[in-house]
Write a structure and sequence with these properties.
- By secondary structure, the chain is an alpha/beta fold.
- The strands form nine sheets. It has a seven-stranded mixed beta sheet with strand order 4-3-18-17-16-5-6, covered by helices on one side. Strands 24-28-25-27-26-29 form a six-stranded mixed β-barrel.
- The chain binds ligand MGD (2 copies) and molybdenum atom.
- One ligand MGD binds next to helix 5 and helix 12.
């Protein structure tokens, strides 16, 4: 989403800079933009399709690969049922509009209930809360950080991540501006993160206990009659029930769980309620925990009862030029919950997917419906999902696996075929998703800049070919000719063109109209500013009666699980809790193979507070063993008071030294995988999101 100016000479990238004329990113880029060059040129990158044989990887033609893959997938499905094949789509899928559109066609063609993605190790609780409150899983409120007077960040580190579910280029300057207008930044985090470092107030919190803090803030607001819904009162229902629901959760109770002083919680609640405008934003840290869905619900309820939803300076909704919400809603896809449950552990479906924490057991547990084959695209679940070692073992015993990826990595090394897509600057770009999540309405289209390297295809073309070959291999799956014709004509690019033309700012049928078309957007390569976010409720709600039910029954019921949990955890209290950590020069598991990003001191270290280190007679630099229920790793210790006592932090995405990894990184800076320690059994049972934060561990 950040505008970049790329200078090329003879097909080579000479420089990458921030685009000062981009109205949204205003010249800002983060180090990851430089990764575009490094990945493009990386000698370890796959340049043609490969097949795994007894003698290692051999080059195959696209045609041979497609035909064999389609034959084997359809044969397996014919013999053992359609659900023997699973799909896993990773994070970069969302960063390519064409891959996103193409991937859903493949999943449909496979007709299996086993669909998985990185959503359930990330933001599933946000979607869950949005579906319950606003009637659409993608209608996510975005903090209006450019106009707010109080930004409360719980479990997010936007200074490093650049904002997440809050696309905010140049966040550092935006937060400086907040302080210049006498606004406040408050951060709740078990670590004094880069964002906490520049905040007006930072409160350490015990991992996984944010739900208590949020309940107590609401309790204070109601007890002191500070609630003020403003115009939301007309369409927010269940206020009395909400008041009763939160009444037992006093700051004193919350203090015992969170380790934040009760007076401090009261003060924060009052300041939030009384601020001219305020917005609470909860991200990864509160999403990937045992009560993630409760947290995301309460975050929005806090915004609503203080009148801060859908008003400038509060939490607002975008009006994107390509409206993915309107489109999905028209197709009847606003989100779904619990239509099916997993075979082994009885976990709920959400949005047509199962929780990825269940993927390995669905492969390893014999019986009817066992997964025997897998297709992955743009994912590295061995390093990114809980108990990665278990998944590693499960992948090794699959009958058939196909991966669409630019690298042979910890996950794709198990595939029988790896199909290499084009990358970054080799394809055009329109941001389908992140415009929808941005702090300002903007639109931008970038055409492809470089020729595809080697013998690669665009992700969407790979999906499209797979679908066609599956249809050829199994005639019963042939779509009606009209549907085939439509899908051939409606390429991803045409989809974007149509979406822009008939979207909220579109030219519509009028060829001379003033509105947007793809041609007009493309003619403005720096992007077009469409202005700040605007109030849009209740019209934008997707709930049937255009109201917001403040107390959705499933969430209220989940409070009972919270009470039971307290009971259980009081019995067995572990010594330390593990949380994660992101770094400006990494991107999940896959930017490590660049010298530029890797140089400097070891960053894959375990952070520990001095009191915990002294108690164990440990010092910085020591090699320690971190162990959890699922596994253990040996890692370098870094003693620092930036982490709360009782908490340790390890970044994820490392752990590259596995058999068959030919990446440079595996030899030089492998690190260890935090997800060898996270636990597939440790999750938010309500929505199925993995609890990657707050995992009990011991350190010796
Ligand atoms: N412990 C812990 N675990 C975490 C997290 C955490 O904070 N702590 N964070 C979680 C989060 S938020 C996420 S999103 C997930 C990410 O989980 P995943 O998406 O499974 O993992 P990534 O490391 O992002 O892997 C992306 C893969 O896509 C490939 N790739 C890159 N670009 C392209 C492309 O254009 N096309 C194709 N086909 N492939 C491409 C890369 O080579 C890489 O293999 O990890 C989660 N795991
Ligand atoms: N440079 C870089 N940028 C990235 C990524 C990357 O890998 N590298 N990944 C991208 C992706 S896929 C995503 S999803 C976003 C994530 O974006 P963010 O959510 O902003 O990123 P995190 O660094 O995971 O921030 C989580 C914060 O929660 C804190 N935390 C952990 N446990 C708890 C808890 O129990 N309670 C509270 N209150 N806080 C807790 C952590 O200490 C951390 O500071 O970043 C994106 N941007
Ligand atoms: Mo993510």
């Amino acid at each position: 989403m950040c505008g970049v100016i790329v200078e090329t000479r003879g097909g080579h990238i000479v420089s990458i800079k921030g685009d000062a004329q981009d109205p949204f990113s205003r010249g800002h880029i983060c180090p990851k933009a430089l990764g575009l060059k490094d990945v493009h040129e990386d000698p370890d990158r796959l340049r043609h399709p490969v097949k795994r044989t007894a003698d290692g990887w051999v080059r195959v033609s696209w045609d041979e690969a497609f035909r064999d893959i389609a034959t084997r997938l359809t044969a397996l499905q014919r013999e053992q049922g359609k659900n023997v094949v699973a799909t896993y789509f990773g994070n970069p899928q969302v960063h390519s509009y064409s891959a996103l559109l193409g991937g859903s066609a493949l999943a449909r063609s496979l007709r299996s209930i086993h669909r998985y993605s990185a959503t359930s190790v990330d933001q599933l609780p946000h979607h869950f809360a949005a579906l319950q409150l606003f009637g659409h899983q993608l209608l996510l409120p975005i903090p209006d950080i450019d106009r707010t007077q109080l930004l409360l960040v719980i479990g997010g580190n936007p200074l490093v991540s650049n904002g997440s579910l809050m696309t905010a280029p140049d966040i550092a300057q935006r937060l400086k501006d907040l302080r210049h207008r006498n606004g406040q930044l408050v951060v709740i985090d078990p670590r004094r993160s880069e964002t906490a470092e520049i905040a007006d107030q930072h409160l350490f919190i015990k991992p996984g206990t944010d739900v208590w803090l949020l309940l107590a803030m609401l309790q204070v607001i109601f007890a002191e009659q500070l609630e003020n819904l403003g115009r939301l009162e007309k369409f927010a229902t269940g206020l009395d029930e909400l008041r009763d629901t939160v009444a037992p959760y006093t700051p004193e109770r919350a203090a015992a769980h969170t380790q934040i002083d009760a007076a401090c919680i009261r003060d924060l609640a009052r300041r939030f309620a009384k601020a001219e405008s305020a917005v609470c934003y909860g991200r990864m840290g509160v999403s990937t925990q045992v009560f993630g869905a409760l947290c995301q619900w309460l975050v929005q309820v806090l915004n609503i009862v203080t009148g801060n939803l859908d008003r400038p300076g509060g939490a607002m909704f975008t009006r994107p030029a390509f409206d993915a919400l309107g489109l999905s809603s028209a197709m009847g896809q606003r989100g779904s919950y619990n239509r099916r449950r997993t075979r082994v552990r009885d976990l709920p479906e959400f949005g047509g997917e199962f929780p990825v924490a269940a993927l390995a057991e669905e492969m390893l547990t014999p019986g009817d419906g066992q997964i025997k084959a897998l297709v992955t695209a743009a994912g590295n679940p061995v390093l990114s999902t809980p108990n990665g070692r278990q998944l590693d073992r499960a992948l090794a015993q699959l009958e058939f696996m196909v991966s669409i990826d630019i690298y042979i990595n910890e996950t794709t090394r198990h595939a029988h075929y790896i199909l290499p897509p084009t990358f970054g600057l080799e394809r055009d770009h329109y941001d389908l998703i992140f415009h929808t999540l941005a702090i300002r309405n903007t639109t931008k289209y970038s055409s492809a800049l470089l020729e595809p390297v080697g013998d690669t295809m665009h992700d969407w073309q790979i999906f499209d070919q797979l679908v066609r070959h599956i249809e050829a291999a199994d005639r019963s799956r042939r779509r009606p000719w009209l549907e085939r014709l439509r899908s051939r004509w409606l390429t991803p690019r045409r989809t974007i063109a149509l979406g822009l033309r008939f979207g909220p700012y579109g030219a519509g049928w009028n060829p001379l109209g003033a509105g947007l078309t793809l041609a007009k957007v493309a003619a403005a390569p720096h992007g077009i500013d469409l202005g700040p976010l605007q109030p849009c409720l209740p019209a934008r709600l997707f709930t049937r009666d255009k109201t917001i039910p403040l107390v959705p029954p499933v969430l209220k019921e989940d409070l009972q699980r919270l009470e039971r949990h307290v009971h259980e955890t009081q019995v067995a209290s572990p010594t330390l809790h593990l949380i994660g950590r992101r770094d400006l020069r990494t991107n999940n598991s896959w930017l490590h193979n660049s010298r530029r990003f890797i140089k400097g001191p070891n960053r894959c270290t375990l952070l520990m507070h001095p009191t915990d280190a002294v108690a164990r007679q440990l010092e910085s630099g020591a090699l320690v063993t971190v162990a959890s229920r699922t596994g253990s790793v040996r890692v370098e210790l870094e003693v620092s008071d930036e982490i709360a006592p009782g908490v340790v932090s390890l970044p994820h995405g490392w752990g590259h030294d596995r058999d068959g990894i030919r990446l440079d990184i595996a030899r030089t800076h492998p690190g260890v995988s935090a997800n060898d320690l996270t636990d597939e059994q440790y999750l938010d049972a309500l929505c199925g999101n993995a609890a990657l934060n707050g995992v009990p561990v011991t350190v010796t």
